[in-house]
Amino acid sequence: MKRLLIVWHSRTGAARDMAEAAARGAAGEPGVETRLLAVDEAGPENLLEADGYLFVGPENLAALSGEMKAFLDRCYYPVLERLNGRPYAHMVAAGSDGTGAARQLARIATGWRLKPIAEPLIVITHAQTPEAILAAKSLDGAALAACEELGAALAAGLAMGVF
């Protein structure tokens, strides 16, 4: 049995919905156990137990959210040189860009020697005012379908041993 770990953080619901959609996509893959954990529930042991990863969170001020960065910081050295070659993907909920968070996570994943299996999936919410940025988010069906597809593809690749 292969294990897919989806680690997420969300302030307004968008990234949580993205992570849940990816988990739904992955759930139908025989031979793959999917575990969905919020960043405050996840730790180095969860990374070590998994065969592949999906990291999901918002971009805040052109970077990973503080909570996602704190998770990666507290796990970085305990798992260094122990995850080499494992596959990962990344999804970002962003108001206007998302590439800053994607670059930051890619650098951390490179340090862990993880293998990216897809380009980062960035969902733009177009929230630009303080009120819109802080408001609860609802994503459209197309965005959630893309998240489901990425979760399904990661799980399928794990099941087939192509990653």
Q: How do you describe this structure in short?
A:
With 163 residues, this protein is α/β, with parallel strands linked by helices. It has helices at 14-27, 44-49, 66-79, 99-111, 130-134, 141-160, and strands at 2-8, 32-38, 52-60, 63-64, 87-94, 115-116, 121-124.
Structure report:
The chain is α/β, with parallel strands linked by helices. It has one domain (2-160): Flavodoxin domain (Rossmann fold, 3-Layer(aba) Sandwich), CATH 3.40.50. It has 6 helices and 7 strands. It has helices at 14-27, 44-49, 66-79, 99-111, 130-134, 141-160; strands spanning 2-8, 32-38, 52-60, 63-64, 87-94, 115-116, 121-124. Strands 1, 2, 3, 4, 5, 6 and 7 form a 7-stranded mixed beta sheet that branches. The longest helix has 20 residues, at 141-160.
- Rg is 15 Å
Give unreliable regions as ranges. Answer: none
- Strand count, sense and closure of the main sheet? 7 strands, mixed
If you consult CATH, what is the topology?
A: Rossmann fold
The whole-number mean of residue pLDDT values reads 97
Q: Helical amount among residues, as a percent range?
A: 40-55%
Output the helix-strand order.
EHEHEEHEHEEHH
CATH superfamily: Flavodoxin domain
- Proportion in β-strands: 15-25%
Structural class of the secondary structure composition? alpha/beta
Supply the number of structural domains.
Answer: 1
Bulk shape: globular
Count the beta strands.
7
Q: Indicate the CATH architecture.
A: 3-Layer(aba) Sandwich
Q: Number of helical segments?
A: 6
Supply the CATH class: Alpha Beta
